[in-house]
Design goal:
The structure is a homodimer of 246-residue chains.
Chain A: H1 6-20, H2 26-32, H3 38-63, H4 69-83, H5 91-101, H6 106-111, H7 117-132, H8 135-140, H9 148-162, H10 172-195, H11 199-227
Helix pairs in contact in A: 1-11, 3-4, 3-5, 3-7, 3-11, 5-10, 7-11, 9-10
Chain lengths: 246, 246
């Protein structure tokens, strides 16, 4: 078996995104199309908070495995993006502006008390993946960022148009993300193309991106099952105030 | 805050089972009530295979954390139960008799290629829980076995009565389990009652059992979402032959 060229590998990675990125999930179709109730948007933001909160833990786990100062320095930017330079700054703080704006109690959100187990397990699978697989696979698993600028544009436009309970201010997380995602995914893609040169490592890299698509997809499966249809709330999960009309 | 007595702790543990054990899940109601299609029973057995296959990995992870020979020896019985004394013996092999009997290709089942990501993430969350929490919590998380003899009786009776594609032979896994589950849960319950003597450790033990109930529950949520309603198959998941009628 011959290895692919770097550009063939990139094409295969992009093909995974075209087929498996969570932009295609029915929950996102509802969310971006303005068909969610406020309670459903709350449930999405509350659950997605845990993903946001664990991203720097994932990134620090990755940095902890790097032997090169240059790579650690590059990846460190992601910690800065998410944790900010001071209290109230950074991606996690901006996500909490969204949950605040949606009327969720901040202590409740941060406590994770209402989290779906499906969210918890998917997010933690991502952290464990990064800790337990090769550094190359860990880096490749970040490549869903390649596809995020598009979903963020759709989300911003769709949500601002459709929901009177969100504003440009509460959606600040999304307006800040695209240039950072672009910078990060440019770096990770170049790294993967440079380092995955054998059939085995190329296969592993493709599997890593599929895995990460599965993580994002499973989070939305969990939301759909609990809050859209058939609305089977797992024991202990967040109950929206408008639950009867959810 | 005063600690509970051991019997009060046991009562609280049993109360968690009464409220959160997966016997109450809508998927089990369908499965045991004879309302599943063959494809749905296949999907359940295929996904549950991964849980069975990882139980000895979980148990070995627990043994690896024990400093006492007596506890390791006691827990080692579980490895014997699941892995058997020779090829074709033990719980995992009996589970594969079930998937064989349901007409699933054994190589396909064992490859995990058709597994729902929700199953993978839930099962792996269990293994990681046992590795990363205290030994007491790890042992407490096994206590869903307290409630399993009842569900197994219901399952055996319900499935044998309702499905012509299963037999007492293919369901041999279940007829073998109850005495083992009883022995194991007697030991784990006595251990937990003896060692959880402070409010903090008692709280941790109760949370560990809730976590484990969440694992089993989330596996059925994933099955329900993919194979019952709204039947959103995640990319790559097992497609039953009778999918159009599932």
């Amino acid at each position: 078996m011959k290895p692919m060229s770097p550009s063939e590998l990139e094409a295969q990675l992009r093909d995974i995104g075209a087929r498996r990125y969570h932009r295609l999930h029915p929950f996102h179709v509802l969310l971006h199309g303005g068909q969610c109730t406020k309670g459903q948007v709350q449930a999405w933001a509350l659950n997605r908070y845990y993903y946001q909160a664990m991203i720097p833990v994932k990134d620090a786990s990755l940095i902890a495995r790097c032997n090169e100062s240059s790579l650690r320095r590059e990846w460190r930017r992601r910690l800065v993006d998410h944790d900010g330079e001071s209290e109230g700054d950074g991606g996690i703080a901006r996500w909490l502006k969204l949950t605040d704006g949606l009327g969720l109690d901040r202590d409740y959100v941060v406590s994770l008390a209402g989290l779906l187990p499906a969210t918890r397990f998917a997010v933690e699978a991502y952290v464990h993946f990064v800790r337990e697989n090769t550094l190359l696979e860990a880096i490749a698993s970040s490549l869903t960022e390649l596809f995020s600028p598009q979903i963020i544009d759709e989300r911003l436009a769709g949500m601002l148009k459709s929901y009177d309970f969100v504003s440009a201010d509460t959606l600040a997380y999304f307006s800040a993300r695209p240039p950072l995602a672009q910078r990060d995914s440019d770096f990770a893609l170049a790294y993967v193309k440079h380092h995955a040169r054998t059939p085995d490592t190329q296969h592993a890299v493709l599997k890593a991106l599929e895995f990460k698509c599965d993580v994002l997809w499973a989070m939305l499966d969990g939301l759909y099952h609990a809050y859209v249809a058939p609305k089977h709330l797992p024991p202990g999960a967040f109950v929206p105030k408008d639950w009867s009309s959810v």
